[in-house]
Amino acid sequence: MDALLKTPLYSLYKDSGAKIVDFARWALPIQFEGILQEHHMVREAAGLFDVSHMGEIEVKGKDALPYLNYIMTNGISRLKINQVLYTVMVNEQGGTLDDVMIYHFNNNHYWIIANASNRIKDFNWMLKHADGFEVEINDISDNAAQLALQGPNAAKILKAAAGEESEQIRFFRFKESVDVNGTSCLISRTGYTGEDGFELYCKPEDAASLWEYLLEVGKKYGLKPAGLGCRDTLRFEACLHLYGNELSEDISPLEAGLGWLVKFDKDEFIGKPALEEQAKPGPKRKLIGFELLGKGIPRGDYKVQKDGNAIGYVTTGYMAPTLKKSLGLALVDSTCSEIGENIDVMIRGKAVKAVIIETPFYSKNYKK
Amino acid sequence: MTILNELLYSKEHEWVKVEGNLARLGITDHAQSELGDVVYLELPEVDDEFSADDAIGVVESVKAASDLYTPVSGKVVEVNEELPDNPEAINEDPYGSWMIVLEMDDDSELKNLLSPEEYKEFCEQEG
């Protein structure tokens, strides 16, 4: 673990019995007590995640808006002040470079929240495609820690920790300079679990005291630390994409079911011609959700067949903890992607029957 | 980590309880702890025959699938049929959660197994 990058919270949990793993070259806790227990805790009460490994790239300058409209597929113009937007960034072939969140401070100032594994690639790509735009692009990741407070009790906990106003932040909105026990935080109502929740950004040197304070305030609401293991099972049940699984440079947003993030009515943007070309007949592959009918658990990269013919592969699969079913996401030929259609998942050389079902597998109607 | 004195152990982290010419198999406390929450188990059937080090089944945690191996050769004479319906029992009571009983072909293979002391040392070395 010595050669790995560490978040400002590493020293707090390294001796706590948490299981630490190498995640995108970061030493991060996959679990504190157990993945299933933490999963249920977030669904039923609340969990606190250290997500300080996420990258933050700042874009400033008078061309910030047209620049972001050029390198991102989603429409940045309609973003309001203090609003957050989910989008992808694609290459000229329409392959997905990353899926990111954009924080809009004003038309001259944005944050891009990048996946840890893509942070350097994204930053270099953004610099490379900034010619002709008056923008300043900085990787500020080392100046920001990030905690995710997630679960049905998250709003109550934040209210107790930071006052009434913080709890009133609406879904996909953020508020700057919120005082949380003396720590200045940027707080957005966002997350990656399918539950209500918040993400809090602060200076790295404040992260440990913020972490401990939130855990203390949240104790009576059932709040405990949660690891990356349950972060993945939670996002999977809610069918939120994971870069490297459901998205990659080999997978377009149209194939991944993220066509809603691609605004063809915008002016030129990188990848637009390639994606238009794909959209006309429709993408050749499609991301689908399925339930395994036979025994076993589908895992990433397992092959998918239809009548003995290869049609694709599993991108993520689990014994879903909340739904208690063996479920998977798979990228398959569009010709075999109808809801209700039967497919076979190859598990250790055996074809196991599965049926294509509606996604997301899990959705909760929390306040948005 | 619990290691029971009356059992023998494999480097694949299975325990073996010798009962005459029969060997009762399960996975160790160390193995269940490394795996994390066990959510799925696949076992062989009675009368299946295996050689030492063959994969006899699969144990899956939330995150990953791992093969189960037999450290001794023989024929399956009993299978814990209830265990696949309650795989979490493996986490709660690894030494109570036996998986299969093999009728051994050659009990001299037991020499290749580790004593409780040797197994403890082996786990410590693996870190």
Total helical elements of chain A: 9
Number of domains of chain B: 1
Largest interface: A-B, 18 and 11 residues
Low-confidence stretches of chain A: none
Structure annotation, total helices of chain B: 3
What's the quaternary structure here? heterodimer
Uncertain residue segments of chain B: none
SS elements, strand count of chain B: 9
- Can you tell me the CATH architecture of the largest domain in chain A? 2-Layer Sandwich
The CATH superfamily label of chain B reads RNA polymerase II/Efflux pump adaptor protein, barrel-sandwich hybrid domain
Fraction of helical residues of chain B: 10-25%
Strand content of chain A: 25-35%
What portion of the residues of chain B fall into strands of 2 or more residues? 25-35%
CATH topology of chain B: OB fold (Dihydrolipoamide Acetyltransferase, E2P)
Please identify, by name, the CATH architecture of chain B.
Beta Barrel
Instruction: Round the Cα radius of gyration of chain B to an integer and report it.
Output: 13 Å
What is the 3D form of chain A? globular
Mean pLDDT across the residues of chain B is: 96
Largest sheet of chain A: 6 strands, mixed
The CATH first-level class of chain B comes to: Mainly Beta
Sequence of secondary-structure elements of chain A: HEEHEEHEEEHEEHHEEEHEHHEEEEEE
Task: Tell me what the structure shows.
The complex is a heterodimer of chains A (368) and B (127). Chain A is an alpha+beta fold. Chain A has 3 domains: 10-52 and 144-237, Probable tRNA modification gtpase trme, domain 1 (Gyrase A, domain 2, 2-Layer Sandwich), CATH 3.30.1360; 55-127, Alpha-Beta Plaits; 284-368, Elongation Factor Tu (Ef-tu), domain 3 (Beta Barrel), CATH 2.40.30. Chain A has 9 helices and 19 strands. Chain A has helices spanning 10-13, 35-44, 64-71, 119-128, 154-162, 164-167, 204-218, 228-237, 272-279; strands at residues 19-23, 26-31, 46-50, 55-60, 83-90, 96-106, 109-114, 136-139, 145-150, 174-180, 183-188, 197-202, 223-225, 285-292, 303-306, 309-320, 325-333, 342-347, 350-357. In chain A, the strands form 4 sheets. A 6-stranded mixed sheet of chain A has the order 10-11-12-9-3-13, sandwiched between helices. In chain A, strands 14-17-16-15-18-19 form a 6-stranded antiparallel β-barrel. In chain A, a hairpin with a 2-residue loop joins strand 10 (174-180) and strand 11. In chain A, helix 2 (35-44) crosses helix 8 (228-237) and helix 5 (154-162) packs across helix 7 (204-218). The two termini of chain A are 40 Å apart. The model of chain A has no long low-confidence stretch (mean pLDDT 96). Chain B is α+β, with helices and mostly antiparallel strands and 127 residues long. Chain B has one domain (8-105, 114-126): Beta Barrel (OB fold (Dihydrolipoamide Acetyltransferase, E2P)). Chain B has 3 helices and 9 strands. Chain B has helices at 29-35, 89-92, 116-126, and strands at 8-9, 14-19, 22-27, 38-42, 49-50, 55-61, 65-69, 74-79, 100-104. In chain B, the strands form 2 sheets. Chain B has a 6-stranded antiparallel sheet. In chain B, strands 4-6-7 form a 3-stranded antiparallel sheet. The longest helix of chain B is centred in the C-terminal third of the chain and has 11 residues, at 116-126. Chain B starts with 7 loop residues before the first strand and ends with a helix. The mean pLDDT of chain B is 96. Chain A binds chain B through residues 19, 30-31, 34-37, 229, 233, 295-297, 299, 318-319, 321, 326, 348, and chain B through 36-37, 39-40, 42, 58, 60, 62-65.
